[in-house]
Amino acid sequence: METSDAQRREAESRNPEQTAARDSSAQQRSDARVRACVRELKRPGEPLCAYVRDLDRLAEHVGDLVRRLPARTELFYAIKANSEQEVLRALAPVVHGFEVASLGEVEKVREVSADIPILFGGPGKTEAELEGAIRHGVRLIHVESLHELRKLDDLAGRRGAAVSVLLRINLKGPLPQATLAMGGRPTQFGIDESLLPHVMEQLPKLTHIRVEGLHFHSLSNNLDAEQHVKLVDYYCRFAQEWAQRYGYPLRYLNAGGGIGVHYAQLERQFDGALFAGGLASVLEQALPPETTLLFECGRYLTASSGYYAAEVLDVKSNHGRNYVVVRGGTHHFRLPSSWQHSHPFEVLPIDEWPHAYGRPELPPNAPYTVVGQLCTPKDVLASDVSAAENVGVRVGDVLLFRYAGAYGWAISHHDFLSHPHPEHVYLRE
């Protein structure tokens, strides 16, 4: 007897430990595959620096999440996390669409697919961007202010078009704690909840705007699956009350992204199976049957399948502190500096040493700070750490930074000091 998607989702929600074990095993296979690739990339006389992305693991991880989500739920990939063409092509058959935040990102998506659904968000959209969104057939535009609504209505009127939008609301809360707060406090994002009645009064005048629901993206990098279910429940109840009060159809509710990555403890990641299982009852109790729930996740989808490999160029001590200098740095991989954390890595020992001069090294368990080649003390990838017990580090070894597939290369200042760019390697069978 064939197992339905609903039965599979229910089984996974009852056996979160089994699901976590399967995910862990898949991640370990990916780690081993990338280690082998990095060793093959190592060439004598050329310091190694490369991004390696396991596209098979990416598609598997995201596909698992899509299958776990309940019916009436769609998952979009927020391409700001990593907009490389190879990544988009790997995800296009898996996700329901892409979420973008600029006309440039719209065009990147359209190079991959002429018709895949697109959601367009972000503050300060220009006329050219809004016109481009209409021209490229964006499904939904997330409107961030009354002024943007009026501008979009004017542009759509000139083209004789009707544009579908979601109103992005900056809620008062209470909201769960997370690394980044996008709402529940003063930010540049969304329409202040207290201004919503005024916006609704103006909508009848905007005859080229078709409001199809609400959009919320209140926080980023939430690690607690149970709290995220409660957050989505809060969104659903607010949206249903809005639809009843103002008489607008609630075709879509966009619950944003906000699912995080636990960089400090890679074995304790967001529980996707628990989250998906909890959503089913939320949709049944708090959302009308005609409403589709949208998610636009970035970091959680791509981080685990990306790796940054950097060869050790020097090992030294300065004022009692040990430093490991690698080929590359924050101009390639800015995430650790941006988030002010020590990014997790492992040492890949490279035993070959072709030089007559000595090979500086640090013994196992000696703490050290990993830095790059830039002329700034802020070029730090990890501070006062050691990779693992009983593993030292030598010049010529390679540090392999894991969970580097999101907000790494995409947000880095690539050409500062004009150092070479890293290689970009994509693994796919």
Automatic annotation (TrEMBL):
<keyword id="KW-0663">Pyridoxal phosphate</keyword>
<dbReference type="Pfam" id="PF02784">
    <property type="entry name" value="Orn_Arg_deC_N"/>
</dbReference>
<dbReference type="GO" id="GO:0006596">
    <property type="term" value="P:polyamine biosynthetic process"/>
</dbReference>
<feature type="domain" description="Orn/DAP/Arg decarboxylase 2 N-terminal">
    <location>
        <begin position="57"/>
        <end position="303"/>
    </location>
</feature>
<dbReference type="InterPro" id="IPR022644">
    <property type="entry name" value="De-COase2_N"/>
</dbReference>
<dbReference type="InterPro" id="IPR029066">
    <property type="entry name" value="PLP-binding_barrel"/>
</dbReference>
<feature type="region of interest" description="Disordered">
    <location>
        <begin position="1"/>
        <end position="31"/>
    </location>
</feature>
<dbReference type="InterPro" id="IPR009006">
    <property type="entry name" value="Ala_racemase/Decarboxylase_C"/>
</dbReference>
<feature type="modified residue" description="N6-(pyridoxal phosphate)lysine">
    <location>
        <position position="80"/>
    </location>
</feature>
<dbReference type="GO" id="GO:0009089">
    <property type="term" value="P:lysine biosynthetic process via diaminopimelate"/>
</dbReference>
<protein>
    <submittedName>
        <fullName>Type III PLP-dependent enzyme</fullName>
    </submittedName>
</protein>
<dbReference type="InterPro" id="IPR000183">
    <property type="entry name" value="Orn/DAP/Arg_de-COase"/>
</dbReference>
<feature type="compositionally biased region" description="Polar residues">
    <location>
        <begin position="16"/>
        <end position="29"/>
    </location>
</feature>
<feature type="active site" description="Proton donor">
    <location>
        <position position="375"/>
    </location>
</feature>
<dbReference type="InterPro" id="IPR022657">
    <property type="entry name" value="De-COase2_CS"/>
</dbReference>
<dbReference type="GO" id="GO:0008836">
    <property type="term" value="F:diaminopimelate decarboxylase activity"/>
</dbReference>
<dbReference type="InterPro" id="IPR002433">
    <property type="entry name" value="Orn_de-COase"/>
</dbReference>
<feature type="compositionally biased region" description="Basic and acidic residues">
    <location>
        <begin position="1"/>
        <end position="15"/>
    </location>
</feature>
